Amino acid sequence: MKIPPLSQISLAASWLLLGLLLAMVADPALFTRYSATAGAAVEHLRAPSGAHWFGTDQLGRDVFARIIYGANRTLPAALIAVATGLLAGAGIGALAGAAGGRVDAVLTGLMDVLMSIPELLMSLTIVILLGFGTIHAAIAVGIGQIAGFARIVRGDVTRISAMTFVEAARGGGATFAGVLWRHVLPNCMTSLIGLSVLRYSTAILSIATLGFLGYGAPPPAPEWGLMISEGRDYLATAWWMTTFPGLAVLLVALATTRISRTIVDPAGKRR
Amino acid sequence: MTRSAPATRPPAAYAETAARIAVRAGHALLVLWGAFTLTFVLLQLMPGDAVMIRFMDPELGLTPAQIAAIRLSYGTGASPFVQYVHTLGQMLHGNFGYSVQLGVPVSSLLATTLPVTLRLAVCGFVAAMTWTFAVAVAATLLPWAWARGLARALPGLWGAVPLYWSGILVIQVVSFRLHLIPVIGVGPWEGMILPALAVSLPVAAPLAQILLQHVDETANLPFATVARTKGASPASVFWRHIIPNAMLPFLTMGGLVFGELLAGAVVTETVFGLDGVGQLTRQAVAGQDVAVLQAVVMISATSFVTINFIIDLLYPVLNPTLRHRARRPTRSRAS
Amino acid sequence: MSPSNFRLRPDAPAAPAMGPVLDVKDLRISYSARTVVHGVSFQAARGETTAVIGESGSGKSTIARAIIGLLPQGAHLESGTITLAGDTLTRRPSHEFDGIRGRRIGFVPQDPSNSLDPVATIGAHVGEMFRLHTTLSRAETRERVLALLDRVGLSDPVLRFSQYPHELSGGMRQRVLIAGAIALNPDLIVADEPTSALDVTVQRQILDLLDGLRAEHGTSILLITHDLAIAKDRARDTIVLRSGRIEEQDDTAKIFAAPRADYTKRLIADLPVFAPRPPPADIPAADAADAVVVSNLRVAYPTGRHQTRLAVDSVSFRVRAGTTHAIVGESGSGKTTILRCLTGLIMPDAGTILIEGEDIAHARGPARRAMLRHIQLVYQNPWASLDPRQSVRQIIEEPLRNFAIDSPAGRRARVEAMLDRVHLPRTLLDRRPAEMSGGQCQRVALARALVIEPRILVLDEVVSALDVTVQARVLDLLAELRRDLGLTYIFVSHDLAVVRQIADTLSVIRHGRQVERGPADTLFDAPAEPYTKLLLAAIPGQGNAAPVQLQET
């Protein structure tokens, strides 16, 4: 195999896409001259062309522009979601794994309860509590992720705490907190970062799902899930209205998944 | 030579098994109670007059005077604890309260919608299992390296496809362009083909990845190599040694994702216009119909807990190392 | 049915009587760009045991895998041919090789604990051979399997037939694997380190069994091992491998009598069983203070509700300051439990442990911490006992920081001095464990233990995971450190040959009970207890390969 292997190409493409998306979040106007919310009614439902790369929607808005401005909304929201899940979940998991005993038993029970409620239903419960909107949806998605984070972190902390080098450090006079800080947590980090990136991609999917169901930002907003939902009414006539926002979600999710795999398993070898 | 009688298990072993089942069942009930408490705190303690919502329902046929009497008996803002105990007691009797939006008992709403969703979940689960095993077989046994690589990459691809989008795409291609299966006006099972397909893919993705991971791990264990040294072909090793071993952790994962199938119903039923629990849930969230949502969460949690309880019980059947503790060698290698 | 008149392969064709059973010519194997086997040629004589010996990385396992046609993923057969009784094996299509493996080449793997499918019965394991290669009925297969289980010395074959691997001990599992390997009376059995995961007494029984099968059925055996002593006892011919090249191959007797290659000479010199016991280096006076006194130690582990198992029962010994006390026992003997008590990791249920006169059980808080500082533990697996994310500098410095010893600059100097002490170059300071060899890691672990100047070192099988040459150097280092720093050692090991090199006094432990204790010389020269005698007799390399009798394991 003399050409670079497919895995290398896909990794490079993933980083490139992520860079582009960051630029879109920073300054959407750089990428399109159209507005995301104001459209020309006469140009409604135009198929993709040189003027409108991804076509226009039922109100004549440029679909490409709406996707770019949508990135500006969805990507930071997914960050909020992962941060919520990570902080609460890793906190619960690390405490359970490190403390052991009765604390562990209680927290594990709590995790079991959280696990028994599917992520989406958990998010919907929070949405009822907080109300609709992108940020609320993000927090709801994050709370849905707590159980997953907690379970993995607890497993990692328990596993690493039982390792010989941790016992050796204790023998060398290290305190409980010292061992946790200097040995257990650093050794959990790689898998935790990898997991966070992976959860970032599922957060994007989930936020788009809530948007699709109509619990995200209200209609004029350019949200990927909402765009797909709106495009459903024009399935037979304007395929581009659903196809391109869906592709956007798909590609971002794929790219982040690909990158997370590199973090967890840098050599690219299968375990 | 006579056939060996299976070593009879001492009575203590039965007692141990019974105790184990009791402990697991207790744990399952505890988890359900926790799920109820959590959703109650999140949903029903919201601002608003919970008693009013529950009893002003026209279905009850209560006169304003009666309602006033009830309010008096509970106190306008009946203490949260009283509400909690009341709701829990009702739910234990199969009474999930009333839908504010539709003005009918939640249980009657569930009676009409649950069969649809169960059908979708079962079809989706069967489809997901089919994909999962197809991928595992293809990724392990196909004779061409590129094809194995492709099969390996598939679950990652599915996992990233938004469920509602793939559903829409399927409708667009299959129904609008190819006119193969109509979306509306079909029988209860034929109508499930497309939704089950759509709901199964995102569920199959993590399942296939887990199964592949365990297949890889098992294939790297010495006993898989030893089986090859006996002259078994790769396919024979895969079916006779790797799959039975990889099934154990895979089953656990299967139990975990079954709940996601029910959640996936929310989106799928919306896309395909099925009148199931998912559709009901979507409307409940839009209308802040907390009693309905709590009922849905509890049904989902109950099915999750039940399935995992069954899997727990099945584990020793599939994994002999969890059986016959009494016959372990006295000289263990661990010191 | 009696096993003696049971023919293993009644329809076996008369094998050609002439020529070697295995002929390997110019074998060259590489992993991507790295060549690991550089043109190796050797033969294995029919009906004899041929040993291939080498340290880790010598390519011996790769050669074994090439012979059975199952090279690990990424390995590539560059050139060479392998011929089995006249038939070329190399470059055969996979499905054709499936008919040869098992039927004509039997394989006995290294680690019996993971080599049997945990969800299949013993009967299924051995029966698989007949299912794959014959058309025997279920009942016939069962008959054959039962006879084989009996032949490899398993008691109650009918019970074993329906048992699962986890219900059997390591030695029994290895017998099952051997039963599978000989089931179809193959031309050759490739045994890849068949006993390295087993206790020394069990090792001896398994090797006796293989020898017996060879003598009875004329099966040829290719014995892959790292242990020269085993080769000396068991093989007619020996091939010495190093870094994928053959250093020497000849009659085993000739090699051991007069090794030609320098490498072979060094290997033999470093083998503990052949090395003379070093003279006791100025042993402290008999009235030296006791560093450690253990009396009537007892530890029980809960095994269920209201049930406990005694892991250690009434063990007593005293160690004078500046001497080495060895605790010897096989797996499951409770020796690890004893040292975990010594280092304060678990509390004994009864008995006392005095460290320099102070009772470890009564110390609390800072006093306990100060006390435990003076007794440091070094572990068996050098990689596992070092944090993979820390550099050598961080690893050695950490205990100093824990006890707030010295300024940062002073600590730096101490770390560097310690590195010199264990004879490691300072260029290693920024390396991580994964970038070092096992011997280097074990030296780092020693440095970490010694940097806070303990007076007692507890050494848990510290050389068991190391190659024989590395092992010899680490033992030299231990002797030097003890002399220079006046340390007291408690040396836990299963390897009596190693213990003989280092111990002044020793305790023999079996099933948690102390079988015998006393000065090392007395125990080695005139053991009183049968178990001690048995352990001594089982040390390979002494040239007395007569079978020893012991209960089935």
TrEMBL record, chain A:
Residues in coiled coil: none
Family matches, as Pfam families: BPD_transp_1 (PF00528)
Membrane topology summary: Multi-pass membrane protein
Cross-referenced PROSITE patterns: ABC_TM1
GO terms classed as biological process: transmembrane transport
Highest taxon listed in the record's lineage: Bacteria
Keyword Nucleotide-binding recorded: no
TM helices/strands, residue ranges: 77-99, 120-148, 197-217, 237-255
SUPFAM superfamilies registered for this protein in UniProt: MetI-like
Record's protein name: ABC transporter permease
Organism: Gluconacetobacter tumulisoli
Lineage: Bacteria, Pseudomonadati, Pseudomonadota, Alphaproteobacteria, Acetobacterales
UniProtKB/TrEMBL annotation, chain B:
Cell compartment(s), UniProt: Cell membrane
Native organism: Gluconacetobacter tumulisoli
Residue intervals passing through the bilayer: 21-46, 118-145, 157-180, 192-212, 250-272, 292-318
Main localization of the protein described in the UniProt heading: membrane
UniProt cross-references to InterPro entries, sorted A to Z: MetI-like, MetI-like_sf
Annotated ranges, domain ABC transmembrane type-1: 114-315
tRNA processing keyword on record: no
Family: Belongs to the binding-protein-dependent transport system permease family.
Protein name, as recorded: ABC transporter permease
UniProt entry keywords in alphabetical sequence: Cell membrane, Membrane, Transmembrane, Transmembrane helix, Transport
Membrane topology reported for the UniProt record: Multi-pass membrane protein
GO cellular component, one term: plasma membrane
